[in-house]
Amino acid sequence: MPLQPPPRDDAGNVTPHNHEGIQANDGVIRRVSEQQIVMDEKAGGRRLSSMAFKASTGENAGMSVDLQQEIEQAGLDARTYVTTPRWTGSLRFEAGSLRSEGFVVGFDPLPDNPYHGEVWGSFSKDKQKRLRQICEWFVPIDGVAIG
Fold it and tell me: Is 80 left (phi over 0), alpha (psi -120 to 50) or beta?
């Protein structure tokens, strides 16, 4: 069953919310681009930068994600859907794990991505470290470590 429309402010922007249709074990996918990868001499190779674990800027901005359950209910392959020439890899979180870290997980459909969601909350350095710990590769990028 498709998700109910999200709450919006007077300007039409989606407001931060925990969407009741997103269950605790639902997959929340964060796309990764080459711009979110850095060289890490200590790690002996490449790893994800903190950019992969931050909110975007703007009104009610959160960390942009795709909602795995919605993609698959539409009959699409989630790994194929989230992988593009720009977004060559992706990470997977569970909505319940994000919420247990104090984040809010909601639905924010876009004209070009009806399965788009947002993760809202404080993206402090400690929280970014926790995000690294609670995610796993969904579409791995060869030679790149998460943390």
Answer: alpha
